[in-house]
Amino acid sequence: MIKCSGMTERFPNETARIYRAFETLAAGNDAFIDLAQAALLIASIEYPDLDTTQYINQLDALARRVRVVLALPGGEPLDPLSTLHAINQVLFTEEQFHGNEADYMNPENSFFNCVLDKRTGIPITLSLLYKEVAQRVGLNIDGIGLPYHFMVRCSVGDHLLYIDPFEEGAFLSEQECRERIRMMTGRSVEGKSKLYAHWFAPVSSRQFLYRMLNNLKQIYLRNDDYLHGLTISDLMVILMPRAAIERKDRGLIHLQLKHYGRALHDLMAYLELAPKAKDRYEILNQVSSIRQIMSMLN
Q: Which structural domain range is residue 224 located in?
């Protein structure tokens, strides 16, 4: 098991192999994307010797312990609420998984192997853990991409129960979630159910991965770490090849790294994908400057 005591040097051939594996996984039907495998592939970019099988086995072992708490001799889950309480007991009381408030912006919080090793993470990676363990017990859990704070949701009887793995599995109603949004954004969501309904809609597997990758990208770019940011941007383009903004972002990262040919290619792709973009003339100026630089270099 690769412990998270520091980033491992990356090798081009290994990175290319991971890209191909991620592309194969992302090309499948969204409903069949294995989120745990995909998250561990993302982690493999920084930890190329990572043994994904060991971490999958760890998830399986956590699910078995939940079944022991539930005392299910036949393997069938009890009612959802009892199952959620059992998951909370194993993950948060016994294993002491918790949110990393002290070092929230550490990129390790976004690497699933590190979350499993260190028992700490950010809302989206702890939500992934919760979802994967619940799935192995037979309970369907949806990821919910609320603003600034990812959570999960489960149907319990005739209502929806929201669970916050960052807060050790705290249970919330939709109204309590709305109050949290109001406190975080300063905007009221009362009386605007239709306007903000997408916040409470289950995210697809691709959206789940996209948000994980975007968290990482923003951390790296905030620290001007363009080399690491580029690998994450590559994965985002693989995941969402028609997302214009990701072509632009990768083009600008290439430009920072003086990869002028690649920057030009991505920025031209952005203009093609978003012909009415508000920053079209700004990007055209960037393209013109890149071409001038390339002509001087030649």
A: 212-297
